Amino acid sequence: MQRKAWGIAFAVLVVPLFGCSALPGSGPDMQAVAAQTRQQIRSPAGAAGIEYALVDIDARVLGVAAPVTPLAFVAAPGVARGGPPTPGGLFIPAEAGARPGNFINLPAQTIDRDGAIGVPYAGKVRALGRTAEAVQSDIAARLADRAIEPQVVVSIEKTRSMQASVLGAVHQPQKVELSPAGERLLDVVSAAGGLSGPERETTITLQRRGRSLVTRYDMLTADPSKNIYVLPGDTVLVNRNRRTFLAFGAAGQNGRIDFGETDLTLGEALAKAGGLLDARAEPRAVLLYRRIDAGTARRLGLDPARFGGDMPVIFRSDLRDPAGFFAAQSFAMQDKDILYVSNAPTAELAKFLTLLRGVTAPARDIADTRRWIGD
After folding, report:
1. pTM of this prediction?
2. Does the residue 274 lie in any domain?
């Protein structure tokens, strides 16, 4: 009896000892930090002071909060869905001189700073901003009093003005030469080596004469009407907006996790985070932190007036309910969501019992040793 009482007393004395600073740690604890601070600004009752709403994920909520709205095709005035660009820059092809004496072959002509080219017997002819057909007609009209029914053939050899810049998240950022047939947005992105990131995370910005339009890349592939022509002087910016969510708590993986190539549901996000840990997780309290706009809040039956802007909401999923998995697989994740899997109450008890076993084991070993040596 004395030995047993001694062992219990030893355990009781050791628990407070190890509850202080004797436990291992990677740095100073909160008590040490608070004790040495020069000044503290504390929230009332230790809370963060941010009000939020708690919403259970059910069939009603799925119809309001689940859909993901894609980035709209935002066009600015002056950026039109026109046809292919009209080239400028001229030359008379060598094959036009098939009948010597009737045709004159001119070398390649360069448009000068005044936007004109020089043509023998016709003088300076304005070319900048005009079609090849218009320049042909102009030259023929000027030669009408010098030749019988003059005919002029003009074609494009090369023009430095027929270029558009493609920059950003492509494999080969460069200036792309535009052909008379015309290139569209997807054409110039392909000419620059294609995307260097996932389609779903890529946006395309077309800048033209101080104005711009923005769209998501996958919308261009899904809707050909948005794949508009690129004009000379345009700049196409390809941006990757990395979509991620944060996972914390009793999940298999904690940290920042990428969406990847596709959109994610809550169920898929849980799978990416390694699922729920059987020994720790509380399936009734899988929490998703998100800020929602006022319109979505009203459709959920919430009052956003007191928040003055986006409303903080915690969506709760109950995976003890068999139907909860259907709901989780229909609830869409959004960029920068925070996923938290709560610890089960028994997990905290298990932590305490583990600590207690670690404390009492040395005392039990000492008692067994004393008994073995016959003390």
Report:
1. 0.61
2. yes
Q: Say whether pLDDT at 358 is over 70.
A: no
Is residue 81, in this structure, part of any structural domain at all? no
- Give me the mean pLDDT over the 50-77 stretch: 73
Question: Does the residue 367 lie in any domain?
Answer: no
Q: Of 125, 143, 159, which marks where a domain is finished?
A: 159
pLDDT, position 15: 47
The per-residue pLDDT for range 188-207, each reduced to its tens digit, is 999 999 999 888 889 999 99
Size of the chain in residues: 375
- The answer to whether the CB of 125 falls within 8 A of the CB of 134 is no
Q: Helix, strand, coil: what percent of the chain each, to 5?
A: 30, 25, 45
For the chain, the distance separating the N- and C-terminal CA atoms, rounded to the nearest angstrom, is: 13
262 and 300 together in one domain: yes
Joined tokens for residue 169 = 């998240």
- Does residue 189 belong to any structural domain of this protein? yes
- Show the tokens assigned to 350: 């298990």
User: What 8-state DSSP symbol labels residue 197?
Assistant: S
Domain that holds residue 116: 87-159
d(CA 51, CA 309): 12
Give the model confidence (pLDDT) of 237-262 as tens digits.
Answer: 999 988 999 999 999 999 999 998 78
Q: Positive or negative CA dihedral for 83, 84, 88, 90? A: negative
159 CB-side CA count, 13 A:
25
